[in-house]
Amino acid sequence: MKSIALLLLPALLTVALHAEAPAEPDYYTITSIPAPAGEVIEGGGIELLPDGRVAVCTRRGQVWMIENASGYPNETAKWTLFAESLHEPLGLAWRDGWLYVVQRPEVTRLRDEDGDGRADLFETVSDGWGINGDYHEYTFGSQFDREGNLWCALCLTGSFTAQSLYRGWVLRVSHDGNVLPTASGVRSPGGVGFNAVGDVFYTDNQGPWNGSSSLKWIKPGSFQGNPNGNIFYAFTGREAGERPVDPPYTEEGSRLVTEQANIPKLVPPAVILPHARVGNSPTGIVPDMSNGKFGPFAGQVFVGEQTHSKIHRVFLEKVNGSYQGAMFPFLEGFKSGNIALRLSDDGALFTSGSNRGWGARGGMPYNFERVNWTGKVPFEIHEMRALSDGFELTFTQPVEKATAVDASFRMEAYTYIYQKAYGSPEVDQVTPKVSVVSVSDDGLSLKLKIDPLTRGHVHELESVGLKTTEGGHGLLHPRAYYTLNEIPE
After folding, report:
1. What element of type H or E holds 106?
2. Cα–Cα distance between 144 and 149 in angstroms, integer?
3. Contact 270, 224 (CB under 8 A)
């Protein structure tokens, strides 16, 4: 018996150690809120109403109101159909008693005039762009910005051409219907939203002129990289400026960092989301404005992922006037492909989506789910900031200094071809040397020297050896992906 027990001891220790390893559900829980029987909620937009209800619009043209969405399952979630027969809406925003809906052909506002819970007044706010029936001509909408505008990101026709007015553009639509063409160069958006200071971003998907999917800053007057929609500069005013020079249509392609010198309006992706490594189809964007009620990432941005049924976390900074930053894995295990995201002030993150057409790891045809912080703080890289010769990392918990050594880090860097062809492999690979320069006294930050830093490359950092003083375990997510558009002075 003694020998049997000794033989079993290593296995028991392995099981015990495995059981103690931190996991995402220790810190963030996912609650599925069931839809009414027989209904399919392929959510494309979510809005939070002043009376506590949650509104969700669906691919099938409906808008639903949900009571007690934050309290479920302790409280019964009550679904009410508010509107239907809309054209694939992908954006909701509330203003002055109206629910604004961004659908394929227009922005519409809805109101319940007689108080029966159903919208009975539908008004067209603006229809200042075109559609022709192509399946790919989606229109994604934001919430209202500080000036009272909705930002609408318009997919190309068939993902390759611009056969309808302003396809491949971002437009601003005021609450009273004025349309302002704001940026060109869009290919296939999956969502549009804000960072914590109110600047606007959209997610674009891999394809022609997009080597990989990415999070892009919509700088007014900018060119985002895909030239197909540039034919519409003839219809724009001063805000959009002059038509940019077309990128090179050569067989070998170019690099974004090279073409920035040739095309002054070209704004590179703020954060590249390496295709297949982290996901295949980024979607909704929401900043954490909950002041700590959703965990330790206040002020950062969360980005949905449809194909992998995930949510990413993004840290953004501005260097030399250009946005850049790092993407970190955040949470996976959703039941379908996340499209819409909305975070409440009290720290409830709602998401909804679909597996339509492209499939999703979650396996279900749709989802409506809520994420809540458990109150426990995960050991994570909190921020990754660019330095002139490397990066500064900050942490949510202090690191064990004995583990903050060169051997705990590995890095690879790569970029993508800027070309007309669909997507790109990773190219121009570099394997930088990583050295720990210093660790702060409190263990909450350290500086790394990276030799070399490569402008225009994704710098993928793996921090497998780091441990925290609070429990002795490693990082919950040891990988980070920093897009280095500019190297600080």
Report:
1. strand 106-111
2. 5
3. no
pLDDT value of residue 209? 98
pLDDT at position 21: 86
Three-state DSSP class for residue 127:
coil
Q: Distance between CA 102 and CA 122 in Å, rounded?
A: 13
Q: Rounded to whole angstroms, how far apart are CA atoms 436 and 260?
A: 32
pLDDT tens readout for residues 169-180: 999 999 999 999
Task: State the residue for tokens 């028991």.
Answer: 12
- H helix intervals, 208-331: 256-262
Per-residue confidence band for 239, with pLDDT thresholds at 50, 70 and 90: confident
Neighbours of 266 (CB within 10 A): 19
Q: How many CB atoms lie within 10 A of CB 173?
A: 26
Query: Helix (H, G, I), strand (E, B), or coil: what is residue 144?
Result: coil
User: Domain 28-373: which topology?
Assistant: Neuraminidase (2.120.10)
Identify the CATH number of the domain defined by range 381-483.
2.60.40.1220
Domain locations in the chain as residue ranges: 28-373, 381-483
Find all residues with CB under 8 Å of 107, minimum gap 6, and list them: 100, 101, 124, 125, 126, 127, 141, 150, 152, 173, 177
Phi/psi-derived region of residue 207, left when phi > 0, alpha when psi is between -120 and 50, beta in every other case: left
- β partners of residue 372: 29, 348
What is the tens place of the pLDDT at every residue in 417-445? Answer: 999 999 999 999 999 999 999 999 999 99
